[in-house]
Amino acid sequence: MHQLDLFAADAPLPQPDPVAGVKAKDALATTPGTASPKKRGRKSLKELADDPHVIRDLDKVTLDKQYYPISEVAAMFKVNASLVRYWENEFDILQPKKNRKGDRLFRQEDIHHLKLIYHLLRERKYTIEGAKQKLKEDKKLAARNFEMVQALLKVRGFLTELKDQL
Description:
Elements: H1 24-29, H2 45-49, H3 54-60, E1 68-69, H4 70-77, H5 81-90, E2 97-98, E3 104-106, H6 108-123, H7 128-137, H8 139-165
Antiparallel strand pairs: 1-3, 2-3
Helix pairs in contact: 4-5
């Protein structure tokens, strides 16, 4: 019988038995210590932060309705509805209307507040407590800074398009 030393520096990896009915790729993907190609569950904050164009995409969307359900708002921000509910509980500036059934209906003002919260938490990397404190100290200043950043990003996008055309 061949003895396998797992702690040796040049130890070969165990190969799956093709007779056992499991494909070699599937067996290697499910072994401990290796990442499976299809990741299930919640995305990490780092994966979510890789999409810096969420706010810019939201600016392109025309808000023509008076009220938006939480599912549409969550889809706009590319987050789960539970996260939007959590932010509602944590931040006093979010006050969505609720119908008799208890469904949250977000107004355009609430969506603007969510943009500000998203900017502080996901783009500026504030903690929940830090974002609360920032909004509590001077909400108008935070909103003005957010609008300036958005305007500068639009100018930057325009200039890069102009540069590409040259």
